[in-house]
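[job 4417] fold queue: 2 targets
>>> target A
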Amino acid sequence: MLKRLVIGRAKRSEELGETLLPKRLALPIFASDPLSSVAYATQEILLVLTLGGLAYLHFTPWIAASVVALMTVVVLSYRQVVNAYPSGGGSYEVASTNLGPSAGLVVAASLLVDYVMTVAVSVASGVDNIISALPSLADYRVLMALGFVALLTAMNLRGVRESGRLFATPTYLFIGGVLIMVGTGLFRYLVGDAPVAESAAYGITPEEGDADLAGLALLMLVLRAFSSGCTALTGVEAISNGVPAFRKPKPRNAAATMAAMGIIAITMFAGVTTLAMISKVHIVEDACRLTGLGGDCESYTQRTVIAQLAASVFGGNDSVGFYYIQAATALILILAANTAFNGFPLLCSILAQHRYLPRQLHNRGDRLAFSNGIMALAIVAGLLLWWYKANVTSLIHLYILGVFTSFTLSQSGMVRHWNRELRTETDLTARRRHQLSRAINATGAVVTGLVLVIVLATKFTQGAWLAVLAAVLLWLMMRAIRRHYDQTAAELAVTDPHMERRLPSRVFAIVLVSTVHKPTMRALAYARAFRPDHLEALTVAVDREGLDRLRRQWDDFEIDVPLKVLQSPYREITKPVVEYVRSIRNAGPRDVVAVFIPEYVVGHWWENLLHNQSALWLKSRLLFTPGVMVTSVPWQLTSSAHADHPAARAPGAVRRGEPVTPHEHAAARRTPPDTTQE
């Protein structure tokens, strides 16, 4: 009941086509991350430059211009990816196809880490903006962040289209609000009434040793600010990963959505940065470095750049425009995590299909979303938010490394792709088009490669090494999973059909008993139905009184099956049974030993703690014995008759072979069969 309330009714597999997205919904779903980064990309540039004091803020326009140029190149490059590889693998597919599986796994590992960081950073930044408007909520930062992750998880479990409808309005409200704010601020500047930020009057004390930077130190400061500003590019590749979710023609719609995303993001980022320079926003990581504060710096909460701009443009911290911008910014930042909630499960599904991740990640849930991937992302991101106390400054250093790794490798792969196409293409128009695409991707590969080096050099010691380590471990894990699946497939492959179909010499059936009751009688009858070559009942004598009682029952009921007794002076049950079964198997290597275990079926979770523990342990041991078949013979207790209502059954219960109740038979007669994959 709770599950249906949260995620809605289950959908049939045939309804998958109804979940495809028009461009107006695809934009907020796949582009909310790069669009929302406007709220903190400028701030990250300023935070780094102010390490040296106010003197270095004049580098801001040049750094912002570099970020804009980089975003333009990346957007143009990924439009080529969308058209060339519309199946949805994005950077992973491009690198795997053109540079080999190992390079593809590097991209996949980098993107998976970055998707997790997208959720953590976006949610933490959204909470920051809420606190900027309502400082009294600062003590609930982590709780709010985890609550928002839970909300996003529930919304995405409802399905891609439903989450798109939910997230579309806040995204467009944010875009409209920022453009109005930028336009109003620039108009006021042109008419001689430039907005002034609340922090404009504060000076900034440089960090120790950073007052007079020159040469290499100055270069490193500027490069570090540039790498922080590159957070504006996070999520740009998500559209190339999500092409299958678009309506037809998929590549054209995806390319158009990517172009719209690039134009909007560049316009907003350039406008916010310009407005921040005009209004003289001064922001630092440590408020105690602000001079002229006139109060306790330890308890002073700095407002975000976007909050200061809204207050300066719209007339103060109590204006309607200020609260509108803060509300829209908080919403878009939190919902920007939705980019990862769509990209991460889809990439996991592709990797699982290629046997690099567990196969469960390839299955769709009740609402045709990749539920297992969504849950995995939510858990890991939630742990990160809890560990780092939802602090954006701490989390941001782990960010964007994976993005530029995937950018560089995918663009390099695209260059090789166009080289291969040009070797066979003879049409002159097509060749010119391919050559232009190759030039765009080559430029993208060189530029993003340089940025990757800069990001590594400036962020590695500040925490980015953790992201590198996580990506390396993930890469190794995926290779190990693929190796396991390959080995399993090789072992299970039929090499000699005649040998595989050869019948066993004998079937030796054993029914495990502890007392004579209805489950025991059913197990004996079921074993007889198999007509084995030999049938016996097996019990373990852990106490004399219990054994004597069993023998009396055996004689009283005139059971014509021999009762084998195993002595156990140390009161063990599992070990004597396993050793006895193995001895039979060793005596006849071509024999099959069939072990029948009577079990109770109960209706409440706590009843499972009271029954079947010995049977469970026995089965787990016997399953590792070659030539032994283990069969559970269920006996349904009264409580189970009331617990098998269809709504209470676990997902996949019927597929796993769990018994169907009369209630479900009646429901099946009333309702058409549902073949939805789980």
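>>> target B
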Amino acid sequence: MTDPLPDEIDEDLWNEASGRADAIRGFLKDNPGRTSATDIARLAEELDLSRASVFRLIKMFREGGTVMSLVERKRGRPTGHRTLDPAREEIIHAAINKHYLRRTRPSISQLVRDVQADCLSARLKPPHRRTIVARLKDVDLRKRARRRSEHKIEKPTTAVRGSFRPARPLEVVQIDHARADVFVVDEETREPVGRPWLTLAMDAYSRVVTGFYLTMDAPSRLSTSLCLLHSVFDKSSWLKERDIVEPWPVAGLPDKVHVDNGADFRSRAFKRGCDDAGIAIDWRPPGTPRFGGHIERLIGTQMGRLHLLPGTTFSNEQDLGDYDPKRHAALTLRELERYIALDIVGSYHQSIHGTLGRPPLAVWREHEGDIPLRLPEDRLRFWLTFLPEQERTLRPTGIHLFGLRYWSAALSADVGRTKRRLLIKYDPRDMSRVFVRRPSGNFVEARYADLTLPQITLHEALTARRALREKGRREVDTRAIVRTVLEQRELVEVAAKRTAAAKRARSRTHAQPDKRELGTLRGIDSSKPVPFVED
């Protein structure tokens, strides 16, 4: 047990030791040399101690020279014995339970302030910080970690009854997300655009990766669904498009998926899609990360491999040093996707797994013939169930979506015959085609109206649109716009004045009739000729 510090000593013990230290200090000052029996007897009488006790205290003070060296330490004090009064002990324990053992994880300094405030309110002397910390250490470590959601502390202190082990492949597939520890660059400008998100699916029996999805968007129902689609279907064409020759013979519907409690896994579309295909969903209980340990370890492994790439952020900021990940970023999202796929099929699947003692692919191959391979009964419907959707009006020129135009001959019969907006399903990984639900209820595939356009992702399409708008903004002559606006204002102002002046002139003309005397025929001698002006 560590020695207490001065401010942790009970007040009575401290006062007693302090008085003795003052007396011994004065005695040694007056008797710098050898002391006589008479002098010792006088000091013993002053301190009300035996001569043997005085000799012992003098020796202790000469060795220590402090009041602490004279503090009485009773032999055999039981471990955990506290000298604090019951009232303050109760305040400390109440503050620990009320203020410290919370998911918001308040600091020890905040706990000390809470205890001190509670003691002052009760007109008690606040205990020292070390006293409070000592009481905190008495709290069961697992209880503290569980109450404060400190999973890294709770995990090694929690007993696990056996280990989770399915009986065969595809009995359970675990899915989870992680932010990649690397920056990627734009396809055109090669400028850094951010860190992507990786959604990974893994077979809990063989530990093979069944599928993954990489995107710049935060985890959502979409990323979960697209990862599941990649997991279920054959990957031969997918690998061929990315020039990957290593096999990835993993496909089929899982019996159950283990997922997190996030909103993306609880979306109605995801649940309905799984129910429809006969896939049970097992949500991880809140605050129990060990239930997803297999997939989390795999994601950790994948993140570790990304630390070898240019633009890595590492998992710990302290490892960065002077390294600027944005400045060194070099891979595009598509290139990073291919890198991860190569690592999965060419390295991870072929390497000995620490728990299995065998390569994951070898375990899959061993049971490949025994796996009850289930595929969606209606491939297109299953596919469309998990794809995102938009609503658009069918124009004579086709379907317009994200700045792209799509057409199918099957839509010709519907042009001009329906005013309803049609449901459009699309795959963000391949925007070369969309699926349009006709008024009859059937889906038809519509492709680019311009068949010469290459296949692109939704992210690339949106990035290109933003770049085009930005280019347009840079080409705008702001000064010309301002000059034009000023000229237009002046034109309107002058025109308004002219119009107002004309209206006032007309108003005066109608309001003031001609008052000149025209005379009458009476008094005019008509017998006399009237001379003309010409005469």
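[job 4417] complete. Note on B: The radius of gyration is 44 Å.
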